[in-house]
């Protein structure tokens, strides 16, 4: 009898051990996929296969790579971006809507956002936008002094936040420096308090969660109060908030647009601009080429050399910013290729999809409701796509600059691709160009130290696993302040 009881106890303990082992394995995979998304993706494919599958928070996910899968990932209409990231959200789950309803809602949101951008960024407003950006830049950089040491990820971040917020709110909203500083602190507080730890161990982050919720309330309250005040103003105004109100947008819609624009713009513009300064300091021939290009443009379009640099740059028409800076365009593209290697998630809201790239070239089925994940490094850091991919070589994009080439091959994903191309690419490029131009012309600068991961002696790179929001899996990239420090000297160049 005792032997039977001992046997049953042993079996029960074995079952508990097996269950515990299974649960630990699930937890381990969840942590790897969320906290180390890039490394998890790049190490999980077997030789000769372009797909693999796993479960993330009990959801079925297929990882993909290769040109065919890449094209499907960016072109397939039933792969929803917003639904892809819902698994990381604590918001109310999406009701069981039809694929048509879900896709229609996503398409409507995209169209609405582009319409709002169109209101603010019409051709007749670009002269004003450029002058505003350069005025903001001049005020901030003037406070830096003539020489010193800076961390671009901190200093450029302050510039980008002000410039971005100014172009979508009003002069009055950003003119109070004490208020602006508090608003900026709350904006970054609610972002930095989204971490993998909050997903897996929420009880340890209750204080951070309260701080985040408080910051969100402050942001909404500040914007709401300002918008309601603007509603009561009289007369015709070209201030961004007034333009949105004049086109019938309500307070809630304007707030959502402003915060969405900030989320998408501040981090990506700061990240790109900071790395451009780092890479051009490490490859000074490109810094020299940029300076020559800007001088040439100014000599043709801003003849009065007695004017301050920011005034002369503000006189350059939008067409020249877009078409007369080919060297800077190449540098931007190469920088984005090296730094924008995040892991991107979609959810299939339509019928089952057949994904190419399985074992022995078999297709893999992606059921309705399942997720698919792709990492941009599959293209950007692939030696079959870019020769010697870890080398900083802007010239390589000369042969890839054809819009048709990039659209069909999806070799360059710095601004997204297909159905998921960045809606604000035009204004983002303009912001990057104005900041870089003023910096390159005003300062002699050199990178003096780094604590960043380095692939080789000449190519420092971001930590592709570094998280902000939930993870790189959630497409939110962080601004890591522990980066290259730049030594600046302002020689009064013009």
Automatic annotation (TrEMBL):
One of its GO terms (molecular function) is monooxygenase activity. It comes from Dendrothele bispora (strain CBS 962.96). Its cofactor is heme. This is Cytochrome P450. It comes from the Eukaryota. Keywords: Heme, Iron, Metal-binding, Monooxygenase, Oxidoreductase, Signal. Residues 1-20 form the signal peptide. The keyword Oxidoreductase applies. Belongs to the cytochrome P450 family. The keyword Methyltransferase does not apply. Heme binds at residue 422. PROSITE patterns: CYTOCHROME_P450.
């Amino acid at each position: 009898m005792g032997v039977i009881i001992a046997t049953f106890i042993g079996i029960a303990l074995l079952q508990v051990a097996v269950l515990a082992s299974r649960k630990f394995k699930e937890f381990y995979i969840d942590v790897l996929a969320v906290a180390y998304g890039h490394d998890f993706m790049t190490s999980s494919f077997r030789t000769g296969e372009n797909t693999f599958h796993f479960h993330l928070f009990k959801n079925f996910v297929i990882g993909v790579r290769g040109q065919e899968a890449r094209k499907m990932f960016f072109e397939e209409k039933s792969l929803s971006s917003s639904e892809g990231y819902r698994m990381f959200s604590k918001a109310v789950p999406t009701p069981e809507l039809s694929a048509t309803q879900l896709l229609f809602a996503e398409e409507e949101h995209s169209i609405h956002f582009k319409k709002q951008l169109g209101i603010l960024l019409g051709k007749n407003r670009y002269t004003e936008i450029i002058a505003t950006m350069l005025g903001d830049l001049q005020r901030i950089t003037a406070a830096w002094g003539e020489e010193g040491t800076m961390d671009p990820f901190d200093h450029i971040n302050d510039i980008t936040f002000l410039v971005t917020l100014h172009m979508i709110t009003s002069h009055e909203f950003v003119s109070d420096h004490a208020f602006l500083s508090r608003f900026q602190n709350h904006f970054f507080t609610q972002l930095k308090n989204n971490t993998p730890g909050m997903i897996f161990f929420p009880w340890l982050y209750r204080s951070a969660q309260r701080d985040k919720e408080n910051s969100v309330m402050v942001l909404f309250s500040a914007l709401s109060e300002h918008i309601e005040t603007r509603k009561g103003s009289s007369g015709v105004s070209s201030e961004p908030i007034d333009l949105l109100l004049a086109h019938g947008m309500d307070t809630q819609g304007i707030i959502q647009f402003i915060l969405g624009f900030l989320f998408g713009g501040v981090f990506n513009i700061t990240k790109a601009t900071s790395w451009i300064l780092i890479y051009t300091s490490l490859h000074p021939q490109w810094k020299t080429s940029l300076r020559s290009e800007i001088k040439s443009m100014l000599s043709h379009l801003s003849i009065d050399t007695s004017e301050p640099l920011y005034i002369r740059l503000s006189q350059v028409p939008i067409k020249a910013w877009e078409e007369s800076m080919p060297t800077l365009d190449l540098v931007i593209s190469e920088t984005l290729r090296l730094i924008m290697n995040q892991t991107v998630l979609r959810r299939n809201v339509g019928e089952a999809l057949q994904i190419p790239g399985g074992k022995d070239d078999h297709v893999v089925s992606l059921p309705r409701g399942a997720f698919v994940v792709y990492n941009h490094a599959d293209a950007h850091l692939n030696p079959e796509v870019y020769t010697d991919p870890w080398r900083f070589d802007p010239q390589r994009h000369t042969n890839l600059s054809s819009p048709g080439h990039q659209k069909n091959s999806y070799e360059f994903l710095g601004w997204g691709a297909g159905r998921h191309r960045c809606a604000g690419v035009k204004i983002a490029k303009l912001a990057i160009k104005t900041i870089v131009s003023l910096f390159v012309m005003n300062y002699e600068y050199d990178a003096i130290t780094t604590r960043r991961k380095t692939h080789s002696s000449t190519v420092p790179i971001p930590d592709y696993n570094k998280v902000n929001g939930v993870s790189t899996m959630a497409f939110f990239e962080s601004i890591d302040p522990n980066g290259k420090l730049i030594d600046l000297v302002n020689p009064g160049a013009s």
